[in-house]
Amino acid sequence: MSIQQKKSDYIGSLNQLMTTSCILAGFAFSGLISLPGIEKEMFSKIVHYFSGDLSLGFYASFYTLFFSTICFLSTIMIILVYKVHNFTIPFAKLRNIHLIANLTFSIAISALMMSVISFGIPNYMGICLAIFLGVVVGGSFVWENLLPKQHQKRIQQVEDEQKKEQESAAQSTNEQQEQPSEDTPQDKSDSSESESHTEGSNL
């Protein structure tokens, strides 16, 4: 793969990342604004159901949501700085920008999940579960998108699938070409029989 193709792939990935970050940043910011306006009576029922702590669940959810919003906005700003000039930068710098933007996005996704879980389960078990799932989600995102070995492995898998499809298509075309050739002797015999029949009738 040439450098120009790699550069176009990185630019396409950054554009998709910025679009997703804009959507999730709006979601996180709207939640950040509406979170302080929640009725304490309604939230206290949830806390009582889980035998949790009101202040613990609220503060954990609020600050992780705030941190998630900051990370989403940071991802957008990192990409926008270079998108203004249509990414007219060297390939090495573009690759570093792609790495940093994906890291901040993975942190933002992890923090957003932690905020949702800590708000839904406002006790120590919920916070531990939020931290665990946040680390798992962020780590899996980094593993699938930033490790070169995984990227090369996916490319190899796609190439193998394309080869299999081409082989199956070639095999099907060969079978279709062989069928008329097999039917040709029968067609000839049928035509000879019809000719003999017509000659007999003429006699």
Automatic annotation (TrEMBL):
<feature type="region of interest" description="Disordered">
    <location>
        <begin position="154"/>
        <end position="203"/>
    </location>
</feature>
<feature type="compositionally biased region" description="Polar residues">
    <location>
        <begin position="168"/>
        <end position="183"/>
    </location>
</feature>
<keyword id="KW-0472">Membrane</keyword>
<protein>
    <submittedName>
        <fullName>Uncharacterized protein</fullName>
    </submittedName>
</protein>
<keyword id="KW-1133">Transmembrane helix</keyword>
<feature type="transmembrane region" description="Helical">
    <location>
        <begin position="58"/>
        <end position="84"/>
    </location>
</feature>
<feature type="transmembrane region" description="Helical">
    <location>
        <begin position="124"/>
        <end position="143"/>
    </location>
</feature>
<feature type="transmembrane region" description="Helical">
    <location>
        <begin position="21"/>
        <end position="38"/>
    </location>
</feature>
<feature type="transmembrane region" description="Helical">
    <location>
        <begin position="96"/>
        <end position="118"/>
    </location>
</feature>
<keyword id="KW-0812">Transmembrane</keyword>
<feature type="compositionally biased region" description="Basic and acidic residues">
    <location>
        <begin position="185"/>
        <end position="203"/>
    </location>
</feature>
<feature type="compositionally biased region" description="Basic and acidic residues">
    <location>
        <begin position="156"/>
        <end position="167"/>
    </location>
</feature>
